[in-house]
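Q: I'm writing up a methods section and want to include an example of the input and output format. Could you take the sequence below and give the corresponding predicted C-alpha cells, formatted cleanly so I can copy it straight into the document?
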Amino acid sequence: MLPHISNEPVCLQEKGRNFIDMLGRAHVLDLLYFMLTTEKPVRFNEIKRQIGITATTLSKRLEELQAQNLVDREVFPEVPARVEYSLSSEGKTLAPVLESIFSWVEKRN
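A: Here is the clean output for your methods example:
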C-alpha cells in the first residue's frame, strides 16, 4: 500500500496541530514572552511570580515546552538543588514569529 500523501499544510497535520494546540494553552504565550525578554536563565519561583501562574500549571507548561525542545532545564548540584530554565536555541527562533503575532494583535485593537 502506498503512503498517504497529505495536501494539508504542515500546521494542519498532526505534528503541527499538536504544536499549535500547545501554544493555545493557558500561560504558554506569557511564559514564552517572559523567557524571550529575559536575558538570563530564570528559576521556577521567579517565573511563577512574574507571570502569576500556579506551580502545578507552570510545571506542566515547562515540561511541555521541554518536550518540544523549546526550553532548556539545568539542574545544579547544590543543596538545595537549584534549577534554572532558559529558552533553547530552537526556542529563540520563535522570537520573530511571536513578535509578529503580538504586533498583529496590537494593530487590531
